[in-house]
Amino acid sequence: MIDVGKGLIGETLSVVVIEVNKDEKRLVVSEKKATWLQCMQKLREGDVFQGKVNTVTDFGAFVDLLFPDGSYPVTGLVHVSELSWDRVYNPRDLVQEGQDVQVKILSVDLDRMRLALSIKQLKRDPLFETLDTLMTNESDDETVNEDDILTEPLPGLAEICQELLKEEGIEEISPGRIAMERRVVSQDLELWLSSAPVQDGNFTLLARAGRQVQEVLVKTTLEREDIKAAVQRVTGRVP
Known about the structure:
By secondary structure, the chain is of the alpha+beta class. The chain has helices at 2-7, 31-40, 131-134, 157-165, 224-237, and strands at residues 16-21, 26-30, 48-57, 60-65, 75-79, 100-109, 114-118, 143-145, 170-181, 186-193, 202-210, 212-220. The radius of gyration is 26 Å and the shape is elongated.
């Protein structure tokens, strides 16, 4: 610290006054906070920045934001819950120190000098889709309607529906529309919570295996996040 201080003698710095004590004739200032506050004037919630991972901990990753002048003047935290839409057991499995990442600013706390960032908010939540967004509409040849191809029950969907009915707050489950994709995404059964508008307490799930996509209508008293959690629990325990 003494060596650093000696190197600053004669330099002009921008600082913020932290403490003024007239009795002890003491003045405490902070160059770090001055730099931070200046940079914060250029940041807004929702902004997207390139950054470099500084440190990875059990509770998330600290990311240095890249400014247009090529500097990395401020650091923010990507909490473990904002790294991925999937459950993260170890942040080090997703990011490493020195890695270049893209982040979205969630919040700026000027008083506490804290910056909350997110990586997952730049990606679509895989559990929030609709049948229309799931299907490719690039050309008429990409998809076909249910009337064009005979469909069979999706393997394992009946068991999942039975398990969902055991979840508190779920009252009724019924089938919805069916669509077919010409390309095969996965032969395994996948289940999503649709972002389609809720009508009369009915949420829409999307089930897919191979080329077939099936809507499942769920009547419930639960909120959207609770339904999402129920879907994750059921798919986790049904083989």
